[in-house]
Amino acid sequence: MSGEKAPPPRLICGKCDQELSMGKVTLAYMGNSFEVELLRCPQCHLVFVPEELATGKMQQVELALEEK
Amino acid sequence: MERLRVQELEAQCIEEAPPACTATCPIHLDARGMMEFVRKGDIPGGFGIVARFLPFPSIISRICDHPCELLCKRAEAGEAVRINDIERACVDHGYKASALPRAQRAQRKKHVAVVGAGLSGLTAAVDLAVKGHEVTVFEAKSRTFDRIREWRRPPLPASLIETDLVQLGTLGITVQTNTVVGAGGMSFRSLADGFDAAYLGLGSRSVADLALDLELDAEGRIVIDPLTFATSHPQIFAGGCHRYGPAVYSPITSVHDGRYAAMSIDRMFQGASLSANRETQGPYPTRLYTKTSDYAPLPAVVPADLHAGFTAAEAVAEATRCFPCHCLECVKVCDFLAHHGSYPKRYIREIYNNDCIVMGAHKANRMANTCSLCGLCSAVCPEHLPMGDFCLEARQSMVLRGKMQPSFHDFALRDMAFSTGDAFALARHQPGTTSSAALFFPGCQLSASSSDHVAAAYAYLRQRLPGGVGLMLGCCGAPAHWGGEEGLFRSALQSLEDEWERMGRPKIITACSSCYRVFKDHRPDFPVTSLWTLFEEIGLPPARKAPPSGPLAIHDPCTTRDEADVQRSVRALLDRIGVASQDIGDPGLTSCCGFGGLMSFVNPDVADKTIDRRARESDADYVTYCAMCRDNFARRGKRALHVLDLVFGTEDDPAAREDPGFSSRQENRARLKARLLREVWGEIPADEGEGPSPLPRLFIDPGVRALAEKRLILESDMRGVIRHAETSGVKILNRETGHFVASHQPAAVTYWVEYSPRGEGFAVHNVYSHRMSLGKEPSS
Ligand code: SF4
Ligand SMILES: [Zn+2]
Hints:
Radius of gyration of chain A: 14 Å
Number of strands of chain B: 20
Helix content of chain A: 10-25%
Low-confidence stretches of chain A: none
Number of domains of chain B: 6
Shape of chain A: elongated
Number of helices of chain A: 2
Bound molecules: iron/sulfur cluster, zinc ion
Number of strands of chain A: 3
Mean pLDDT of chain B: 95
Order of helices and strands of chain A: EEEHH
Largest interface: A-B, 34 and 39 residues
Strand order of the largest sheet of chain A: 2-3
CATH class of the largest domain in chain B: Alpha Beta
Shape of chain B: elongated
Structural class of chain A: alpha+beta
GO molecular function (chain B): 4 iron, 4 sulfur cluster binding; metal ion binding; oxidoreductase activity
CATH superfamily of the largest domain in chain B: FAD/NAD(P)-binding domain
GO cellular component, one term (chain B): plasma membrane
Low-confidence stretches of chain B: none
Distance between the termini of chain B: 27 Å
Radius of gyration of chain B: 37 Å
Strand content of chain A: 25-35%
InterPro entries (chain B): 4Fe4S_Fe-S-bd, 4Fe4S_Fe_S_CS, Cys_rich_dom, DPD_II, FAD/NAD-bd_sf, FAD/NAD-binding_dom, HdrC_iron-sulfur_subunit, Helical_ferredxn
Strand order of the largest sheet of chain B: 3-2-1-4-5
Keywords (chain B): 4Fe-4S, Iron, Iron-sulfur, Metal-binding, Oxidoreductase
CATH topology of the largest domain in chain B: FAD/NAD(P)-binding domain
Helix content of chain B: 40-55%
Pfam family, one (chain B): Fer4_20
Structural class of chain B: alpha/beta
Distance between the termini of chain A: 34 Å
Oligomer: heterodimer
């Protein structure tokens, strides 16, 4: 599983063969959107969402927005 | 939601009604609150309550006639709690002058005369002084409390009276003894004109001789309004044993009169109505219900030294006998109601407020959506408050206002869409016939859990029933109903109804008690029979396996709580099969397995508690007749079997069968349809159906499978991600592990799968999901 902490895994875009690097990404839910820094392909902008983010912070924000 | 209806429902819950002791006490002393302090050993805390209610705590705690104890519910389980003795102990062991009330500042300070320095007069004096008024007391005798200084049962030490009298000075009350009011003393006119108001606490004798300019009755006593203590003079009030005597003397009734007359005087000063909102003044019967049969009888604690009264330790022991009285009948039986730490009256308010607010967090959303809607609360409630109906209304309102949280029911509704869609839904006459006398409706969950039994039951019905037995696969719409999606629910029912009409309105045979309930509640014109009642009529096929030897405990699905006939049929069948069975408690109060109301999707922890509580009620293996109940028990490690396991089962130990899980549930339904089409109607199904597993082939080890189940991610979702990644090449390679990570968003949810090629398929290493969209949101 992808739970291991540092050093950060080297993630490569399958299409462009480029290493993913941090960049601005837009997330949107229930009519709200915000910019966050995530690993993404510098060329095609394919984004990687790690498990910790999806099941942690993202889920909290989802619920908070749903409750609004 | 309608405000009036909400208020009616709130009022139905009696949990906030006072306990009998408090309701019976003429001044409604919070005896239960006092007991709660004392039982914790906090006697000064107990005194705090005593001092808040009793104007003269040292005196009244000894001489009170304590009517509270007459109705104490402890008497139904032992003896009444010695409330008055505990008050005395609070005074003896917890007295602190700082707990006595202090004078407030009055808006408009008035001057009040009190005539008579007995209990009622001095109570009125203290209460009015606390309200900030200036009070002068006139007493004909040479001392205050003349009557109770003679108290002999038991004697009242003078020192205690002195202790309480200090309060008069602290509050700035002036006392003039040896002052007669009326003929031969201070004139009535100077009383009526010299003060803003007066209270007369004159003792029980006739006052005809005093030349008071007031209406008197035949016995020479002042005519007093028993509610407001008003006399014929608008500024003069009266009470005490002059009103209720002379046959009895009740110290606490005198306090009551003084207190409520003072309230009238203060209302008069404020120009408020004298008679409004006084319904609960004085003793009244409470609505509070307390189930005393839950408690073992206990005798009262007797003080070692009767004369000295309770020691602190004895008081604590006696206070511990206080239950304390609460209703909470519903909270005792429901983990959902217990989970939120309060009771329906509060919940209704919270959910209603939540319904009204437009902006801000809707914290009660999850609460309204956690209820399993099983109705047990209402069954045990002395007032039959329909809390489940209310939660359902709240959900419907949320859906109508677009406020239903998408994450709550999304998964269950998609599962329902699967069952009402082509993959599963089917309606056919028996092969070789063009009409149906009966129609077998096994339901989506039995088909998902035990498709073999469905096939076998259908074969048996065809063999036994004349006139053709049609088959209808589909879903009754319960998930939509539970989720508050009335529109969706209505249209699901409508399409069932259309099919049923098309098939010539046959008798419907249900195997699932939820379907049975839904049809009975929402399509009363459907001729519905439960499979169990029918089996009782037509008999059972010979069992394929010997029944288990040990006794089984019957878990009746919550949807059969009011279906005594169905419950009885199931027992008759078990008898016929030859298994020993026993009830779990009262079948009329059976509880939910945590699936009802979609509870397990909204609040899995509460659902697990619900099922675990039920599972603990008997050590025996359970037998039930709802596939969801059976599978939920299995999921939580409770051995359980379905009645059909005993009829058609071929397994050696069906009670050990695992919960199939969500992915298999859908697959099982699809395969059942394909199989029946092939075996019964001789058709070759269009899609893969029962053939080889869908592609690509996945290797998922149990840990990942369990995680996926918890995260509500189906195998078909994983397959969708991998198929998408492998055909488009859009995937991420992790150099360290050699695994790929890819995502796919078929609809609202984005699924992520970490995988690697294995053989002709793929090994799945991890799965997770989120609802937020990357980039712009797709318009829904
Ligand atoms: S059972 Fe529950 S809802 Fe009914 S009165 Fe008691 S606390 Fe209120
Ligand atoms: Zn790329």
